[in-house]
């Protein structure tokens, strides 16, 4: 069992102090739209790996490559603008702290800012993640334990206004991957409780602010 600190969208003041040491976790995951120095503080204070996907208010992190510690973009050495030491899981499937995590950042497109996608664009990205997860499963028999996204699925914890509408393609992705957990941000509670929802056997959790979750690793789909 892996204990996960999941954060998104809203800074929790007590976590940005020494009080964070009271948390005993194995992994930090971030579902977007948080200051990168806040994420770096959490990772350093807890001395645990940090995995994140970008939100629609984050900077554009696409096109960066890291080869033996050197960051480049378009072949030119650059400084990566993301949180130091963190793993960007956007459009990837990664293994960390005993869990297999598939990630898709961003929101539905509603203006020209980065990390926004049309339904068709996000569906294309979701198909890539599905293929990557399938190749991993063929290789070692393990499925995805956590689907980490910024936005929720359509009609599953989203809102009716255009910027906060969820992605229809996420419902199909959950059906294909069947992860025990889908963790997302983007939808601020505004004082209204946001209960967990389910898509099949997948527990869909809004982690805006923070949640501490116990996730069983080695999800076997064979």
Automatic annotation (TrEMBL):
Gene3D superfamilies: 3.60.21.10
Pfam families given in the database record: Metallophos
Boundaries of every Calcineurin-like phosphoesterase domain copy: 18-189
Protein name: Metallophosphoesterase
């Amino acid at each position: 069992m892996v204990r996960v600190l999941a954060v998104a969208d809203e800074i929790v003041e007590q976590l940005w102090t020494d009080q964070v040491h009271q948390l005993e976790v194995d992994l930090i995951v971030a579902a977007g739209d948080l200051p990168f120095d806040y994420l770096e503080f959490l990772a350093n204070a807890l001395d645990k790996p940090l995995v994140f996907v970008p939100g629609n208010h984050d900077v554009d992190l696409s096109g960066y490559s890291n080869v033996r510690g050197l960051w480049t973009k378009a072949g030119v050495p650059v400084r990566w603008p993301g949180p130091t030491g963190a793993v960007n899981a956007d459009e990837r499937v990664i293994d960390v702290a005993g869990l297999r995590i598939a990630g898709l950042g961003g929101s539905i497109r509603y203006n020209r800012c980065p990390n926004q996608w049309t339904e068709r664009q996000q569906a294309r990205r979701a198909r890539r993640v599905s293929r990557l997860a399938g190749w991993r499963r063929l290789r070692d028999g393990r499925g995805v334990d956590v689907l980490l996204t910024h936005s929720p699925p359509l009609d599953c914890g989203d809102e009716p206004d255009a910027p906060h509408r969820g992605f229809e393609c996420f419902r199909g992705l959950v059906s294909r991957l069947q992860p025990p957990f889908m963790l997302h941000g983007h939808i601020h509670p505004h004082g209204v409780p946001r209960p967990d929802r389910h898509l099949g056997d997948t527990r869909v959790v809004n982690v805006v602010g923070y949640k501490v979750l116990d996730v069983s690793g080695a999800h076997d789909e064979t």
